[in-house]
């Protein structure tokens, strides 16, 4: 193994040296070392990618599609994605307003790089997907967190207005619906009250709707349908089509903004993996979407209901789990609010892996996230282990 020249060890960007990029993945890897663990810490579909989507990738490879493709995705992918969004959520996108990225992960980073100037701030309702805050600080911005733990884990119009008034340097507001880690979903009227405030300010609205197809009790409403002129919409195939490893996300935005983000995107990746683009085009393709995603959604809903019954039985407090595949519940007061310690104890005594709420920022202390993207057998067993742990503590 190469021994680095010692003087080079600490010369890198201090942000890089002080940042752990993925606490969730690190904790999940820690859990994997525990024998017999049921790991419900990671947010990743357990389904295989649907057959017709895999065939599209195979066909692309066999057709020798081995040259650099368009930086923003093929016209077919962008047309299909636009049609999918317009049909499902009532948006009015054209293919020229869509850009494919290497997952929404890249979309987040490229967007902040493109839009932020030094001193700009981004409002992030917390608890939240951790990559947002890192993306902001790495690109010279400041994070303004609004803790939503006392407002049902949703940003309210009042809190939004106060934050925008108090921090005039806010340039973008992030809304994630359905939410990670909470699984909560904003209703149309809740979004309308936010839109009424947002319209009055010169701010971008970054709407991460990667879980849009996984809304159970209601219908998904897209901010991009309500406030298209300010919205940068993120969507993708990772979660709703069980394609995390294909690494394709989608940005939809007014073309001038899409193109500005596209400059950064080209600098980072130049072009996208062709086979993944072909597979994503199929996933978003006309007629291909409904049966596949509806089947997975029905299965997730069944698993959610099984676990909700267990939480009810244990009288545990939880956020309204209306979407995505997460259940977000509060540990009993008697256990304190050191959720990292609690999650480790649960993992070692019951072999049940859940994600500590603090990994998702302010408002997460004392909470735990269950990902129910796991087999029914694992969900049933997880229920038993929750009963064994929390049932005896009361
Ligand atoms: C809210 C949210 N946004 C974005 C991502 C990243 O998705 P992708 O696989 O497209 O990079 C995730 C993944 O967990 C997520 O939960």
UniProtKB/TrEMBL annotation:
Entry EC number(s): 2.6.1.-
Cited Pfam families: Aminotran_1_2 (PF00155)
Keyword Transferase among UniProt keywords: yes
Entry keyword Lipid metabolism: no
GO biological process: amino acid metabolic process
Keywords per UniProt: Aminotransferase, Pyridoxal phosphate, Transferase
Aminotransferase class I/classII large domain segment(s): 37-378
A GO MF label: transaminase activity
Obligatory cofactor(s): pyridoxal 5'-phosphate
Enzyme class: transferase
Domain of life of the organism encoding this protein: Bacteria
Family of this protein: Belongs to the class-I pyridoxal-phosphate-dependent aminotransferase family.
Name of this chain's protein: Aminotransferase
């Amino acid at each position: 193994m190469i021994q680095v020249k010692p003087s080079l060890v600490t010369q890198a960007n201090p942000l890089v040296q002080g940042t752990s990029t993925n606490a969730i993945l690190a904790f999940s890897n820690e859990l994997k070392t525990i024998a017999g663990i049921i790991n419900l810490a990671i947010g990743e579909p357990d389904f295989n990618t649907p057959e017709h989507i895999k065939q599209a990738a195979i066909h692309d490879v066999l057709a020798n599609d081995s040259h650099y493709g368009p930086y923003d995705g093929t016209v077919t992918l962008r047309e299909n994605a636009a049609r999918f969004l317009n049909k499902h959520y009532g948006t009015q996108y054209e293919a020229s307003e869509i850009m494919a990225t290497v997952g929404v992960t890249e979309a987040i980073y490229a967007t902040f790089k493109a839009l932020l100037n030094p001193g700009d701030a981004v409002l992030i309702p917390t608890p939240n997907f951790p990559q947002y805050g890192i993306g902001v600080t790495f690109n010279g911005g400041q994070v303004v967190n609004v803790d939503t733990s006392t407002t049902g884990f949703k940003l309210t119009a009042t809190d939004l207005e106060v934050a925008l008034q108090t921090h005039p340097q806010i340039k973008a507001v992030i809304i994630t619906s359905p939410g990670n880690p909470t699984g909560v979903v904003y209703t149309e009227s809740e979004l309308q009250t936010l839109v009424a405030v947002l319209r009055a300010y010169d701010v971008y609205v970054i709407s991460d709707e990667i879980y849009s197809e996984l809304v159970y009790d209601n219908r998904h409403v897209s901010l991009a349908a309500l406030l298209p002129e300010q919205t940068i919409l993120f969507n993708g195939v990772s979660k709703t089509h069980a394609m995390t490893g294909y690494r394709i996300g989608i940005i939809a935005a007014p073309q001038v903004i899409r193109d500005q983000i596209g400059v950064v995107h080209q600098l980072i990746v130049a072009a996208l993996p062709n086979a993944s683009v072909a597979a994503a085009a199929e996933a978003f393709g006309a007629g291909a979407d409904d049966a596949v995603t509806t089947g997975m959604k029905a299965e997730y809903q069944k698993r959610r209901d099984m676990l909700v019954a267990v939480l009810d039985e244990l009288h545990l407090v939880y956020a309204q789990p209306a979407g995505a595949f997460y259940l977000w519940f509060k540990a009993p007061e008697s256990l304190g609010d050191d959720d990292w310690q609690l999650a480790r104890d649960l993992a070692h005594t019951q072999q049940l892996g859940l994600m500590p709420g603090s990994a998702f920022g302010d408002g997460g202390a004392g909470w735990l996230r269950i990902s129910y993207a796991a087999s029914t057998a694992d969900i049933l067993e997880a229920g038993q282990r929750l009963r064994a742990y929390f049932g005896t503590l009361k």
